[in-house]
Known about the structure:
The complex is a heterodimer.
Chain A: H1 5-11, H2 28-42, E1 51-52, E2 57-58, E3 61-66, E4 71-72, E5 82-88, E6 100-109, E7 122-129, E8 142-151, E9 157-161, H3 163-171, E10 179-185, H4 191-207, E11 209-217
Antiparallel strand pairs in A: 1-2, 3-11, 4-5, 5-10, 6-9, 6-11, 7-8, 7-10
Chain B: E1 15-17, E2 20-22, E3 32-34, E4 37-39, E5 42-44, H1 59-70, E6 79-92, E7 98-113
Antiparallel strand pairs in B: 1-5, 2-4, 3-6, 6-7
Amino acid sequence: VQFQEYVFLQFLGLDKVPSPQRFQPVPYILKKIFQDREAAATSVDSRDFCYIKDFGVRGNVLRLLPDQGLFLYSRKLSQASSCLQKFLYFNLSAIKEKEQLTMAQLGLDLGPNTYYKLGPELELALFLVQEPQEGDQPIPKPGRMLVLQSVPRPQGVVHFNLLDVAKDWNNDSQKNLGLLLEILVKGNRDIGVTFQLQDACARLRQSLRASLLVVTLHPEQCHPSSRKRR
Amino acid sequence: EAIPAPKAPCRNLCHRHQLFINFRDLGWHKWIIAPKGFMANYCHGDCPFSLTTSLNSSNYAFMQALMHAVDPEIPQAVCVPTKLSPISMLYQDNDDNVILRHYEEMVVDECGCG
C-alpha cells in the first residue's frame, strides 16, 4: 500500500520529511514531559493534555530553538571587566501562523557545575538589538536592556522569560534582529587575578550554550476539554 | 504490522483492530527521537440489532439498528471509536529545532456501535 507520506507529514505540521544533519541534545525537561505524557496516555485520568504543568502554561507544541548567533570580538571591549560578548539569534519561522505563543524561555548554559574553579562572580547583561548592524560596526548596537543579573560563578543554567520579545518577533519577523549578551567579571582586577580571569573567560567561551524554549498552542488541535466524550 | 486479534467469539462483530506503525519501516527513525512508532488501531465489524445492547453502543445505535431491521434501506449502525487517547512525539526538524508535539485523540482504545 503506497503510504501517503506527505499527507501524514502535513498532519504532523511538517511540509517535508526532516533530514537533520546532526542530532541536537534533548534537554532533560523535554524528555521528562514526554515520559510523563506517555505514562498519562495509558492511564485513565483524562487530564487536559494541552496544559504543560511543568511550566504552568497551555500549549501542545514545545520547540527548543538553538542559538544561531556568533561570538563577537571587538578591539575596544565595552568595559575593562568584559569577559565575552555574544550575538544571539533564534529562528522562529517554524512557528505556524495559527499557533499562539504561550511561553518563551531563554536558557543560558554557562557550563557544568563543578567543585573547583569556583570563581569569578559574573554579571550577565542582555540587550535587545533594535537596529540592523551597519557595515563597519564590529558589534550590533545594544538597544533596550532586558536583563542584568549576577551569577556567583560561571556554572549552571540560568533562564529568562522572553515571551513579550518573542511575541513581537513572531508578529513581525523584521523585528527579529537578535539579542546581544555581554558577560562581565565582577570584583577586583589585580594583576595576579587577571590571568585566572582570562582562563575562566576562555572556558566560558567554550561551554556557553544558548537556546530558546518556546511553547505554542494550536487552537484547532487543542479544543477546550469541555468536548463531550461518549 | 497487524497484531493478531484475540480469538474474538464473533470475529465479524464490531471491535478494535490493532495496527502498529513502526517509524523505522517508514525510515522516519532518523528524525523522530521518540516514540518508536504508534498504534494506528481502527474500528471495524458489524452492528447487528441483536447485539447493539452489548456492543458498547449508544442509544442512537440501538434505534438505528432497530430501524435497519424494519427497513433494510436504512443503513446499519456503524462501528466507531468510543474511547481515544493522545500521543506525544519528540522529533527534530530541518532547522535543528527539537520539538515535542502533542496530538489529542490519536489512538483508538475502544470501539462500539454508533
